[in-house]
Specification:
Elements: H1 2-28, E1 44-49, H2 55-66, E2 76-81, H3 89-98, E3 103-107, H4 108-118, E4 124-129, E5 148-152, H5 155-169, E6 175-180, H6 185-200, E7 204-209, H7 216-225, E8 230-233, H8 237-240, H9 242-254, E9 259-261, H10 264-268, E10 273-277, H11 279-294, E11 310-315, H12 316-321, H13 328-331, E12 336-338
Parallel strand pairs: 1-2, 1-3, 3-4, 4-5, 6-7, 6-8, 8-9, 9-10, 11-12
Antiparallel strand pairs: 10-11
Helix pairs in contact: 2-11, 3-4, 5-6
Length: 339
């Protein structure tokens, strides 16, 4: 009986040894053990913006979701907002670099310039930039070069269309105040590109150059002195803060100036009209750039995309308050009418 027990013990030992040897052979043949298999790295994306982008943030998330990413599970997003304080952007960009994110997504030209100064190696994908070549962000639209690529909104080229819509909506207008910022490179381009279509349409432009929050009251007083009959604006960082959007819309209402804005946020706040690139669509498509880069794409070789979708939004309640009747020809071009 003792002999039988010893035989069984020896058989189990030999079987165990053969099993271990088999695992060793399998490992040697290129089949890693479970313990040696590396964990899948969850990509980390930084998002840098001067101000919270609201619906655009949701659109970016939607774009990622459409590509199979789930925030917090298969991708991590580090959201960084400067809350309208330009001086905070460099520190926020540096923090993203220290986190060693895989890609930085930037909102607007200023955030993109700051991110580009912070890193020449981490890929940067921008949205909401007017002229990326003119402002020096990329070498060309076809081959950006460097570590920056993304989507432009063709802001400067849209100025002629905005003026045409203003002429069609309010034919009696001849003097138009233009709210812009000389501290924004893209605004400087937009101001230059506005001159020719304004002359062609018979508009006289009144320049309202604001470079900081304290400049708005002076600019508004200048518009009144120059007898401005309407208002348009460009999308500069100082103009796009929520507080200053509110000031601009209130000034237009108080002064009974028909206004055509660059972004629909102004119309949501009570402004009359907005025409421009669909910003939410741009951020949704920015997710595709992130996906390509995470899969090995080189930003230097990813062409800059130009917009394909434009929005015209009109607030009829504001039109009524101004005593305006928007022509049917303009209403037929709208993406959305706010009653």
């Amino acid at each position: 009986m003792v002999h039988d027990r010893a035989v069984r013990t020896r058989r189990r030992f030999l079987q165990g040894g053969l099993a271990l040897a088999g695992l060793g052979l399998l490992s040697g043949c290129g089949f890693p053990s479970l313990q040696a298999r590396p964990a899948t790295k969850v990509p980390r994306v930084g998002f840098l913006s001067l101000v919270p982008v609201g619906p655009s943030e949701d659109a970016f998330r939607q774009g990622l979701h459409e590509l199979g990413y789930v925030e917090g599970q298969t991708i991590t997003i580090e959201w960084r907002y400067a809350e309208g304080r330009e001086e905070q952007l460099p520190a926020l960009a540096a923090a993203l670099v220290r986190l060693d994110v895989d890609v930085i997504v930037t909102a607007g030209a200023l955030a993109t310039q700051v991110a580009k100064q912070a890193t020449q190696t981490i890929p940067i994908v921008f949205a909401g930039v007017g002229d990326a070549v003119e402002t020096g962000l990329v070498a060309s639209l076809a081959r950006p070069g460097g570590n920056v690529t993304g989507l432009i909104n063709l802001g400067p080229q849209l100025q002629g269309k905005r003026l045409e819509l203003l002429r069609e909506a309010v034919p009696s207008v001849s003097r138009v105040a233009v709210l812009w910022s000389g501290s924004s490179d893209s605004n400087v381009v937009a101001w230059r590109e506005t001159q020719a279509p304004a002359r062609a349409l018979g508009f006289q432009l009144v320049s309202l150059d604001v470079r900081g929050p304290d400049d708005f009251d002076r600019a508004f007083e200048h518009a009144i002195r120059e007898r401005a009959e309407a208002l348009i604006n460009f999308a500069a960082p100082v103009i796009m803060t929520a507080a200053n959007q509110r000031r601009i819309v209130d000034f237009a209402a108080r002064s009974r100036l028909p206004a055509l804005y660059s972004r629909r946020e102004f119309v949501d706040a009570g402004g009359l009209m907005a025409y421009g690139t669909s910003v939410t669509d741009s951020y949704r498509r920015a997710a595709a750039y992130v996906d390509k880069i995470l899969k090995g794409g080189n930003p230097a070789d990813l062409p800059i995309e130009q917009p394909t979708k434009f929005d015209l939004v009109i607030n009829l309640k504001t039109a009524q308050a101004l005593g305006l009747t928007i022509p049917q020809s303009v209403l037929q071009q709208t993406t959305e009418v706010i009653q």
